[in-house]
Specification:
Shape: globular
Radius of gyration: 17 Å
Number of domains: 2
Helix content: 40-55%
CATH class of the largest domain: Alpha Beta
CATH topology of the largest domain: Rossmann fold
CATH superfamily of the largest domain: Response regulator
CATH architecture of the largest domain: 3-Layer(aba) Sandwich
Number of strands: 12
Order of helices and strands: EHEHEHEHEHEEEEHEHHEE
Length: about 230
């Protein structure tokens, strides 16, 4: 059974979401402050974290920063509706996706399943568990690891999936709509910048290993392309 950690200071809402997720056959525990949330997220006893941005003491953004310093556990952020700043900052820090509040339990469960499908590799991408390489980059879908010239490229689960879609289509422009559907498991929403922010993070990590080259090219108004050598 998948173990979910729900971190939200709204006790009533947490209880409602927990009951729904339990009926959906998830194991759910709750925490109501950032300190406790970080500690439980790093305990090794949960599989995915649902993290509210607005928390007392250590807020959700800082909690995410602390989690990402030690773990690549999938994190789904709960953000205030229309609050693009928190949303983008969360994605830049390594959140796998976000859900605007107020949200329905059904939508939350659907987003959780989408993330889990990507993490567990159920064939939503181009299938196959053999490593795929383009130039200095090698992706190993089975272990979900990436290497650039033999150096480890640390990626979140969403970053790995986005990069895998681009690499498997190297030399072809992939639209943002296709990237969102295949890597994030959902349609691209209007004004949604999730794909752009995730790819910006991937580029930064690639530059740290190879400052001279950027293999991901932006095709303005269309999407992105991984340059095939």
């Amino acid at each position: 059974m998948v173990r979910i950690l729900l971190v939200d200071d709204d006790v009533e809402l947490s209880g409602m979401l927990r009951e729904y997720l339990l009926r959906d056959r998830f194991a759910v525990e709750t925490a109501h402050d950032g300190e406790t949330g970080v500690r439980r997220a790093l305990s090794g006893e949960v599989d995915l974290v649902v993290l509210d941005v607005m928390l007392p003491g250590v807020d959700g953004v800082e909690a995410l920063r602390r989690i990402r310093a030690h773990s690549r556990i999938p994190v789904l952020m709960l953000t205030a509706k229309g609050d693009d700043v928190d949303r983008i900052v969360g994605l830049e820090l390594g959140a796998d996706d976000y859900v605007p509040k107020p949200c329905t339990p059904r939508e939350l469960a659907a987003r959780i399943r989408a993330i889990l499908r990507r993490v567990q590799g159920d064939g939503t991408l181009d299938a196959g568990h053999r490593p795929v390489s383009v130039g200095p980059l090698t992706l190993s879908p089975e272990s979900r690891t990436a290497h650039w010239n033999g150096q480890t490229l640390e990626l979140t689960s969403t970053e790995f999936n986005l990069l895998e879609v681009l690499v498997r289509n190297a030399g072809r422009v992939v639209s943002k709509q296709e990237l969102c559907e295949r890597a994030l498991g959902r349609p691209l929403a209007r004004y949604d910048r999730s794909v752009d922010v995730h790819l910006s993070a991937i580029r930064s990590k690639l530059r740290a290993l190879s400052p001279q080259r950027t293999p991901i090219e932006t095709i303005r108004g269309i999407g992105y392309q991984f340059i095939k050598e």
